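In response to the reviewer comment on reproducibility (Comment 2.3), we provide here a single inverse folding case reported in full, input and output, so that an independent group could reproduce the run without further information from us. The structure tokens appear first.
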């Protein structure tokens, strides 16, 4: 009996040892040392958002654009990453834009291509700079339509430089008011011609939510399943507002009719209903413009709340000067925030558009040989708005000793990283050899090819990627 028990014990011991050995052969272990992911309050030079510069160029056969204008565009080194380019074509309001005029427009865009410091371009073509839209508009809508055809050809040549085209050419400052062409069938003709002539990759922008509803033919804003289909007008029709927070009506942007009493798509709703409309619509298309007329509505706290609801992406840095100066002379105060002590202007700049913060990262520490490891990343968008154009998100794994780089594409859509929300995604890892690996996150715009910078103190690579941490495998 004792001999049998001894034999049984020996066999059990062998089985246990063999099990341990086999388990070791068929399992892997990783050590993960994450970065601290501390949030930063610094300026980030990301495209498609922020305070914008404004530039005006007048096109004319009699007084062509001078060479110094092109040179100033080529050599400018702005801090801002977005610019509003107004191209005045009033000299041609009674005729086609001449070959010489078209060449001046091409040279203007070519100068932006040649500059070292690229910007996201918002473009507005206009006949008027004096507030005399009714007198400055062409005598026939057919001339406007012909100009759209001519300009659309040029925009198509430089579409990689262009983010948004604002307006439909007519009205005072092309702000879509004070024109006989902005009612009924004429407006529908103009906005559909813009859709036909401008390349699909470019957003269009109309002046009010009511103009959006008129063109869309409905009261409801976009749904997610309709978004990002850039071949459809409603999916790329955004808003611009040059009367933001000027008064309760945003200087004519809103009206006095509650949404539930509205009988016509032309109706401008009361402020609360229009803000609710933008809160949904502008999750999918951009919104921006000018904050005007110093009043309580554009005090920092009120402006911040409104911009979160409107999902503001871009604002004029020079107008209204009284509002801008008020923000610069106001301090943002919140001792629980990394933005505590910044000026109101800086605080708003940091939050316009998208601002991505890496909150947490985790790597699978162990598993069976047939199970891949994985890295999970949590990112919060603390900006007012999403990123509206598509990006490629990648995890980069570099072997510290050999320098060998592995690039893994993440199955996440940056356009769905919504403001005020945390998004999580997981990428399978394939680390076969023992060693030390640095893990980076890189997000690159598909259109502008520019790397998105994260609002973290983590080390940043030369390509703009953000260090997530270090993996060690083996001894």
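Designed residues, in position order:
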């Amino acid at each position: 009996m004792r001999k049998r028990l001894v034999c049984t014990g020996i066999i059990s011991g062998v089985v246990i040892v063999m099990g341990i050995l086999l388990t070791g052969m068929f399992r892997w272990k990783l050590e993960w040392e994450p970065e601290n992911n501390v949030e930063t309050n610094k300026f980030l030079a990301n495209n498609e958002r922020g305070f914008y510069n404004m530039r005006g160029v007048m096109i004319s056969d009699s007084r062509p654009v001078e060479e110094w204008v092109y040179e100033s565009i080529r050599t400018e080194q702005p801090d801002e990453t977005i610019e509003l380019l107004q191209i005045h074509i009033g000299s041609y309001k009674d005729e086609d834009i001449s070959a010489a005029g078209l060449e001046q427009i091409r040279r203007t865009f070519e100068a932006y291509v040649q500059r070292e410091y690229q910007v996201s371009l918002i473009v507005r073509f206009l006949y008027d700079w004096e507030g005399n839209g009714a007198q400055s508009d062409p005598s026939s809508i057919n001339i406007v339509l012909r100009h759209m055809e001519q300009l659309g050809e040029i925009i198509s040549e430089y579409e990689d430089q262009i983010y948004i085209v604002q307006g439909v050419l007519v009205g005072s400052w092309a702000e879509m008011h004070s024109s006989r062409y902005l009612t009924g069938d004429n407006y529908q003709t103009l906005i559909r011609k813009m859709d036909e002539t401008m390349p699909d990759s470019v957003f269009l922008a109309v002046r009010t939510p009511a103009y959006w509803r008129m063109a869309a033919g409905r009261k409801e804003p976009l749904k997610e399943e309709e978004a990002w289909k850039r071949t459809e007008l409603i999916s790329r029709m955004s808003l611009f507002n040059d009367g933001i927070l000027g008064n309760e009506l945003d200087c004519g942007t809103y009206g006095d009719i509650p949404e539930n009493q509205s009988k016509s798509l032309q109706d401008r709703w009361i402020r609360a209903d229009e803000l609710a409309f933008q809160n949904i619509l502008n999750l999918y298309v951009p919104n921006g413009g000018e904050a005007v007329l110093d009043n309580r509505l554009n005090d920092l706290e009120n402006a911040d709340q409104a911009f979160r609801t409107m999902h503001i992406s871009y604002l004029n840095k020079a107008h209204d000067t009284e509002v801008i100066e008020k923000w610069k002379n106001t301090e943002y105060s919140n001792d629980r925030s990394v933005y505590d002590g910044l000026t109101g202007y800086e605080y708003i700049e940091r939050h316009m558009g998208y601002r991505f913060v890496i909150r947490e990262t985790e790597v699978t520490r162990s598993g069976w040989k047939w199970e891949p490891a994985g890295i999970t990343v949590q990112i919060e968008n603390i900006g007012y708005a999403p990123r509206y154009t598509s990006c490629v998100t990648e995890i980069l794994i570099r072997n510290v000793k050999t320098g060998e780089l592995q690039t893994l594409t993440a199955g996440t859509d940056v356009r769905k990283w919504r403001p005020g929300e945390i998004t999580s995604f997981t990428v399978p890892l394939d680390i076969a050899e023992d060693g030390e690996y640095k893990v980076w996150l890189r997000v690159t715009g598909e259109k502008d090819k520019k790397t998105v910078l994260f609002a973290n103190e983590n080390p940043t690579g030369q390509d703009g990627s953000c260090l997530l941490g270090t993996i060690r495998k083996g001894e």
